Protein backbone atom coordinates (compact mmCIF):
# COMPACT_ATOMS: atom_id res chain seq x y z
CA UNK A 1 0.00 0.00 0.00
CA UNK A 2 1.38 3.48 -0.82
CA UNK A 3 2.53 5.49 2.15
CA UNK A 4 0.67 8.60 3.29
CA UNK A 5 1.09 11.30 0.64
CA UNK A 6 0.46 13.95 3.29
CA UNK A 7 3.96 13.24 4.63
CA UNK A 8 5.95 12.78 1.42
CA UNK A 9 9.39 12.05 2.83
CA UNK A 10 11.61 9.01 2.48
CA UNK A 11 14.96 8.42 4.10
CA UNK A 12 17.67 6.89 1.98
CA UNK A 13 20.41 4.58 3.20
CA UNK A 14 23.35 6.33 4.89
CA UNK A 15 20.97 8.76 6.62
CA UNK A 16 20.09 11.09 3.80
CA UNK A 17 16.72 12.71 3.32
CA UNK A 18 14.66 12.69 0.14
CA UNK A 19 11.47 14.75 -0.06
CA UNK A 20 8.97 15.29 -2.85
CA UNK A 21 6.28 17.45 -4.30
CA UNK A 22 4.06 14.98 -6.08
CA UNK A 23 0.88 15.39 -8.05
CA UNK A 24 -1.08 13.18 -10.41
CA UNK A 25 1.12 14.18 -13.37
CA UNK A 26 4.41 15.33 -11.86
CA UNK A 27 7.06 14.50 -9.28
CA UNK A 28 9.76 16.85 -7.98
CA UNK A 29 12.50 15.49 -5.71
CA UNK A 30 14.73 17.37 -3.29
CA UNK A 31 17.76 15.56 -1.89
CA UNK A 32 19.60 16.97 1.11
CA UNK A 33 17.84 20.32 0.63
CA UNK A 34 18.86 20.71 -3.04
CA UNK A 35 16.51 20.22 -6.03
CA UNK A 36 17.41 16.94 -7.72
CA UNK A 37 14.90 16.26 -10.49
CA UNK A 38 11.46 17.03 -11.84
CA UNK A 39 9.61 14.47 -13.96
CA UNK A 40 6.21 14.26 -15.59
CA UNK A 41 4.12 11.17 -14.94
CA UNK A 42 1.56 9.55 -17.22
CA UNK A 43 -0.33 6.54 -15.96
CA UNK A 44 -1.28 3.80 -18.35
CA UNK A 45 -0.34 0.18 -18.89
CA UNK A 46 2.97 1.15 -17.28
CA UNK A 47 3.88 4.36 -15.49
CA UNK A 48 5.46 6.70 -18.07
CA UNK A 49 8.21 8.95 -16.71
CA UNK A 50 9.57 11.95 -18.63
CA UNK A 51 12.57 13.91 -17.40
CA UNK A 52 11.88 17.67 -17.38
CA UNK A 53 14.58 19.11 -15.10
CA UNK A 54 17.62 17.54 -13.47
CA UNK A 55 20.72 18.52 -11.52
CA UNK A 56 23.29 17.93 -14.28
CA UNK A 57 25.99 17.02 -11.76
CA UNK A 58 23.81 14.27 -10.26
CA UNK A 59 22.02 12.68 -13.22
CA UNK A 60 22.68 8.99 -12.29
CA UNK A 61 21.65 9.70 -8.72
CA UNK A 62 18.52 11.51 -9.93
CA UNK A 63 17.41 8.60 -12.13
CA UNK A 64 17.98 6.18 -9.24
CA UNK A 65 16.11 8.40 -6.76
CA UNK A 66 13.05 8.77 -9.00
CA UNK A 67 12.87 5.00 -9.50
CA UNK A 68 13.31 4.43 -5.77
CA UNK A 69 10.63 6.94 -4.86
CA UNK A 70 8.05 5.54 -7.28
CA UNK A 71 8.68 1.89 -6.37
CA UNK A 72 8.63 2.64 -2.63
CA UNK A 73 5.60 4.88 -3.08
CA UNK A 74 3.56 2.08 -4.64
CA UNK A 75 4.60 -1.58 -4.29
CA UNK A 76 2.11 -2.44 -7.04
CA UNK A 77 4.26 -0.81 -9.73
CA UNK A 78 6.30 -3.49 -11.53
CA UNK A 79 7.84 -1.35 -14.30
CA UNK A 80 8.58 2.27 -15.19
CA UNK A 81 8.92 3.48 -18.77
CA UNK A 82 11.30 6.43 -19.10
CA UNK A 83 11.44 8.86 -22.04
CA UNK A 84 14.94 10.35 -22.29
CA UNK A 85 16.56 12.52 -24.94
CA UNK A 86 20.06 11.11 -24.36
CA UNK A 87 21.07 7.49 -23.75
CA UNK A 88 21.63 7.03 -19.98
CA UNK A 89 24.93 5.16 -20.32
CA UNK A 90 25.65 4.80 -16.60
CA UNK A 91 22.12 3.61 -15.82
CA UNK A 92 22.24 1.12 -18.67
CA UNK A 93 25.61 -0.33 -17.65
CA UNK A 94 24.48 -0.78 -14.03
CA UNK A 95 21.13 -2.39 -14.92
CA UNK A 96 19.06 0.44 -13.44
CA UNK A 97 17.56 0.94 -16.90
CA UNK A 98 17.30 -1.33 -19.94
CA UNK A 99 16.60 -0.29 -23.52
CA UNK A 100 13.05 -0.62 -24.81
CA UNK A 101 12.07 -1.37 -28.41
CA UNK A 102 11.06 2.26 -29.10
CA UNK A 103 13.87 4.77 -29.58
CA UNK A 104 14.30 7.08 -26.59
CA UNK A 105 12.43 4.76 -24.23
CA UNK A 106 14.05 2.87 -21.36
CA UNK A 107 12.57 0.52 -18.79
CA UNK A 108 13.20 0.23 -15.08
CA UNK A 109 12.05 -3.16 -13.80
CA UNK A 110 11.28 -3.52 -10.10
CA UNK A 111 12.83 -7.00 -10.15
CA UNK A 112 16.12 -5.55 -11.44
CA UNK A 113 16.09 -2.39 -9.33
CA UNK A 114 16.14 -4.23 -6.01
CA UNK A 115 19.07 -6.38 -7.17
CA UNK A 116 21.39 -3.37 -7.45
CA UNK A 117 23.80 -3.81 -4.52
CA UNK A 118 24.20 -0.16 -3.60
CA UNK A 119 23.19 1.70 -1.53
CA UNK A 120 21.73 -1.11 0.57
CA UNK A 121 24.98 -2.89 1.42
CA UNK A 122 27.07 -1.54 4.27
CA UNK A 123 30.31 -1.84 2.30
CA UNK A 124 31.01 -0.97 -1.36
CA UNK A 125 30.29 -3.90 -3.64
CA UNK A 126 33.57 -5.09 -5.15
CA UNK A 127 32.26 -7.87 -7.35
CA UNK A 128 32.10 -11.58 -6.65
CA UNK A 129 34.79 -13.40 -4.75
CA UNK A 130 36.78 -15.68 -7.10
CA UNK A 131 35.80 -19.34 -7.09
CA UNK A 132 38.22 -21.99 -5.91
CA UNK A 133 36.87 -25.35 -4.82
CA UNK A 134 38.14 -26.97 -1.64
CA UNK A 135 37.22 -29.82 0.69
CA UNK A 136 36.51 -29.40 4.40
CA UNK A 137 35.03 -32.08 6.66
CA UNK A 138 34.52 -34.24 3.59
CA UNK A 139 32.42 -31.61 1.78
CA UNK A 140 33.51 -30.05 -1.52
CA UNK A 141 32.56 -26.38 -1.72
CA UNK A 142 33.84 -22.98 -2.90
CA UNK A 143 36.35 -21.10 -0.77
CA UNK A 144 34.35 -18.44 1.06
CA UNK A 145 35.19 -14.76 1.16
CA UNK A 146 36.44 -13.31 4.46
CA UNK A 147 33.50 -12.48 6.69
CA UNK A 148 32.48 -8.80 6.97
CA UNK A 149 32.53 -6.77 10.17
CA UNK A 150 30.14 -4.02 11.19
CA UNK A 151 26.95 -2.95 9.43
CA UNK A 152 26.27 -4.99 6.30
CA UNK A 153 22.78 -3.78 5.26
CA UNK A 154 20.46 -0.82 5.81
CA UNK A 155 17.12 0.11 4.30
CA UNK A 156 14.27 2.42 5.25
CA UNK A 157 11.00 0.48 5.46
CA UNK A 158 8.32 2.90 4.29
CA UNK A 159 5.50 0.73 5.67
CA UNK A 160 6.91 0.76 9.20
CA UNK A 161 8.44 4.23 8.97
CA UNK A 162 11.60 2.75 10.47
CA UNK A 163 15.13 1.69 9.55
CA UNK A 164 15.85 -2.01 9.29
CA UNK A 165 19.55 -2.80 9.47
CA UNK A 166 21.84 -5.79 9.92
CA UNK A 167 25.25 -5.76 11.58
CA UNK A 168 27.66 -8.49 12.52
CA UNK A 169 27.46 -9.80 16.07
CA UNK A 170 30.30 -8.69 18.36
CA UNK A 171 30.72 -11.12 21.24
CA UNK A 172 31.81 -8.62 23.90
CA UNK A 173 29.07 -6.19 22.93
CA UNK A 174 26.24 -8.67 22.38
CA UNK A 175 26.90 -11.62 24.71
CA UNK A 176 24.57 -10.61 27.54
CA UNK A 177 21.79 -9.78 25.09
CA UNK A 178 22.24 -13.09 23.29
CA UNK A 179 22.22 -14.96 26.62
CA UNK A 180 19.00 -13.24 27.71
CA UNK A 181 17.30 -14.01 24.41
CA UNK A 182 18.33 -17.67 24.35
CA UNK A 183 17.05 -18.21 27.91
CA UNK A 184 13.65 -16.73 27.10
CA UNK A 185 11.19 -19.67 27.46
CA UNK A 186 9.59 -18.89 24.09
CA UNK A 187 12.94 -18.95 22.30
CA UNK A 188 14.19 -21.92 24.33
CA UNK A 189 11.24 -23.98 23.12
CA UNK A 190 12.48 -23.82 19.51
CA UNK A 191 16.22 -23.18 19.75
CA UNK A 192 17.04 -25.34 22.77
CA UNK A 193 20.26 -23.39 23.29
CA UNK A 194 19.74 -22.05 26.81
CA UNK A 195 22.80 -21.79 29.02
CA UNK A 196 25.26 -19.63 30.91
CA UNK A 197 27.21 -16.65 29.65
CA UNK A 198 30.33 -18.76 29.30
CA UNK A 199 28.47 -21.47 27.38
CA UNK A 200 27.13 -18.86 25.01
CA UNK A 201 30.55 -17.21 24.65
CA UNK A 202 31.90 -20.58 23.56
CA UNK A 203 28.93 -21.14 21.20
CA UNK A 204 29.41 -17.77 19.50
CA UNK A 205 33.17 -18.10 19.41
CA UNK A 206 32.91 -21.35 17.46
CA UNK A 207 30.54 -19.76 14.96
CA UNK A 208 32.79 -16.73 14.60
CA UNK A 209 35.72 -19.01 13.74
CA UNK A 210 33.65 -21.01 11.24
CA UNK A 211 33.99 -19.62 7.67
CA UNK A 212 30.60 -21.00 6.64
CA UNK A 213 28.61 -19.16 9.34
CA UNK A 214 27.87 -15.44 9.71
CA UNK A 215 26.24 -14.22 12.92
CA UNK A 216 24.09 -11.08 12.60
CA UNK A 217 22.14 -8.73 14.83
CA UNK A 218 18.94 -7.24 13.41
CA UNK A 219 18.02 -3.68 14.41
CA UNK A 220 15.01 -1.43 14.05
CA UNK A 221 16.12 2.21 14.23
CA UNK A 222 19.50 0.93 15.47
CA UNK A 223 17.95 -0.87 18.45
CA UNK A 224 18.86 -4.60 18.49
CA UNK A 225 15.86 -6.91 18.44
CA UNK A 226 16.91 -10.16 16.74
CA UNK A 227 19.72 -12.64 16.14
CA UNK A 228 20.29 -14.35 12.81
CA UNK A 229 22.69 -16.99 11.57
CA UNK A 230 23.40 -17.01 7.83
CA UNK A 231 25.26 -20.07 6.63
CA UNK A 232 26.53 -21.53 3.37
CA UNK A 233 24.30 -24.55 2.87
CA UNK A 234 26.87 -26.61 0.95
CA UNK A 235 29.00 -27.03 4.10
CA UNK A 236 26.06 -27.36 6.49
CA UNK A 237 24.22 -30.32 7.96
CA UNK A 238 21.28 -29.49 5.68
CA UNK A 239 23.26 -30.34 2.51
CA UNK A 240 22.43 -34.07 2.35
CA UNK A 241 18.69 -33.42 2.49
CA UNK A 242 18.23 -31.62 -0.86
CA UNK A 243 20.04 -30.89 -4.14
CA UNK A 244 22.19 -28.13 -2.69
CA UNK A 245 24.01 -25.63 -4.94
CA UNK A 246 27.44 -24.14 -4.28
CA UNK A 247 26.10 -20.70 -3.29
CA UNK A 248 22.84 -21.51 -1.50
CA UNK A 249 22.50 -19.64 1.80
CA UNK A 250 20.58 -20.82 4.85
CA UNK A 251 19.15 -18.88 7.79
CA UNK A 252 18.35 -19.39 11.46
CA UNK A 253 16.17 -16.69 13.05
CA UNK A 254 15.46 -15.51 16.58
CA UNK A 255 13.42 -12.46 17.63
CA UNK A 256 14.48 -11.61 21.16
CA UNK A 257 12.55 -8.43 21.97
CA UNK A 258 8.84 -8.99 22.53
CA UNK A 259 7.76 -5.58 21.19
CA UNK A 260 9.14 -6.49 17.79
CA UNK A 261 7.10 -9.62 17.25
CA UNK A 262 4.14 -9.84 14.86
CA UNK A 263 3.53 -10.33 11.13
CA UNK A 264 4.26 -6.72 10.08
CA UNK A 265 7.68 -6.83 11.75
CA UNK A 266 8.46 -10.29 10.35
CA UNK A 267 7.63 -9.05 6.84
CA UNK A 268 10.17 -6.26 7.28
CA UNK A 269 13.11 -8.16 8.78
CA UNK A 270 12.67 -11.42 6.85
CA UNK A 271 12.58 -9.62 3.50
CA UNK A 272 15.60 -7.55 4.56
CA UNK A 273 17.57 -10.63 5.60
CA UNK A 274 16.83 -12.45 2.35
CA UNK A 275 17.52 -9.29 0.34
CA UNK A 276 20.94 -8.95 1.95
CA UNK A 277 21.89 -12.55 1.22
CA UNK A 278 20.91 -12.29 -2.44
CA UNK A 279 22.87 -9.03 -2.78
CA UNK A 280 25.90 -10.35 -0.90
CA UNK A 281 26.73 -12.76 -3.74
CA UNK A 282 24.83 -12.63 -7.06
CA UNK A 283 25.64 -16.34 -7.52
CA UNK A 284 23.27 -17.18 -4.65
CA UNK A 285 20.11 -18.54 -6.29
CA UNK A 286 18.29 -19.87 -3.21
CA UNK A 287 17.85 -19.08 0.45
CA UNK A 288 16.79 -22.05 2.59
CA UNK A 289 15.66 -22.60 6.15
CA UNK A 290 14.76 -25.60 8.29
CA UNK A 291 12.35 -24.52 11.05
CA UNK A 292 10.78 -27.16 13.22
CA UNK A 293 7.92 -28.76 11.31
CA UNK A 294 5.49 -27.95 14.12
CA UNK A 295 6.39 -24.23 14.13
CA UNK A 296 3.31 -23.35 12.11
CA UNK A 297 3.45 -19.63 12.85
CA UNK A 298 6.98 -19.18 11.48
CA UNK A 299 6.26 -21.39 8.48
CA UNK A 300 3.18 -19.27 7.76
CA UNK A 301 5.23 -16.08 7.92
CA UNK A 302 7.72 -17.61 5.48
CA UNK A 303 4.94 -18.56 3.07
CA UNK A 304 3.83 -14.91 3.19
CA UNK A 305 7.33 -13.93 2.00
CA UNK A 306 7.19 -16.39 -0.95
CA UNK A 307 9.08 -19.33 0.60
CA UNK A 308 7.64 -22.73 -0.23
CA UNK A 309 7.88 -25.94 1.76
CA UNK A 310 9.80 -28.48 -0.29
CA UNK A 311 9.30 -31.34 2.18
CA UNK A 312 9.62 -32.41 5.80
CA UNK A 313 12.66 -34.36 6.95
CA UNK A 314 14.32 -35.59 10.13
CA UNK A 315 17.39 -34.08 11.73
CA UNK A 316 18.73 -36.02 14.74
CA UNK A 317 17.24 -33.40 17.09
CA UNK A 318 14.02 -32.39 15.31
CA UNK A 319 11.62 -32.96 12.45
CA UNK A 320 12.15 -30.01 10.13
CA UNK A 321 10.37 -28.32 7.24
CA UNK A 322 12.64 -27.52 4.30
CA UNK A 323 11.69 -23.98 3.27
CA UNK A 324 13.11 -22.60 0.01
CA UNK A 325 12.97 -19.19 -1.67
CA UNK A 326 14.52 -18.75 -5.12
CA UNK A 327 16.17 -15.54 -6.31
CA UNK A 328 13.85 -15.17 -9.30
CA UNK A 329 10.70 -15.54 -7.25
CA UNK A 330 11.94 -13.17 -4.55
CA UNK A 331 12.66 -10.35 -6.96
CA UNK A 332 9.70 -10.99 -9.28
CA UNK A 333 7.27 -10.97 -6.34
CA UNK A 334 9.32 -8.35 -4.51
CA UNK A 335 7.60 -6.98 -1.41
CA UNK A 336 10.34 -4.50 -0.58
CA UNK A 337 9.41 -0.84 -0.18
TrEMBL record:
Stretches assigned to the Acyltransferase MbtK/IucB-like conserved domain: 167-214
Signal peptide (UniProt feature, chain positions): none
Pathway annotation from the record: Siderophore biosynthesis
PANTHER family the UniProt entry points to: LYSINE N-ACYLTRANSFERASE C17G9.06C-RELATED (PTHR31438)
Protein name as it appears in the record: Acetyltransferase
Source organism: Pseudomonas rubra
Lineage: Bacteria, Pseudomonadati, Pseudomonadota, Gammaproteobacteria, Pseudomonadales
Amino acid sequence: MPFDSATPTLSLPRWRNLSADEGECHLSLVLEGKPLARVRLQRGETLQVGLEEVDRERVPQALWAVCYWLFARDPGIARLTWQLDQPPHSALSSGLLVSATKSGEYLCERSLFWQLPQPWLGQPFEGVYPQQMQISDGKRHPRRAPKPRGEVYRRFDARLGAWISLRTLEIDQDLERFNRWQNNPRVLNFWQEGGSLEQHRDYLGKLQADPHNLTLIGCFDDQPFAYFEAYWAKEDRIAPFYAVDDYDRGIHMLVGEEQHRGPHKVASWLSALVHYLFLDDPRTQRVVAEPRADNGKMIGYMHDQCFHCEKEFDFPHKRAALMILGRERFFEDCKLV
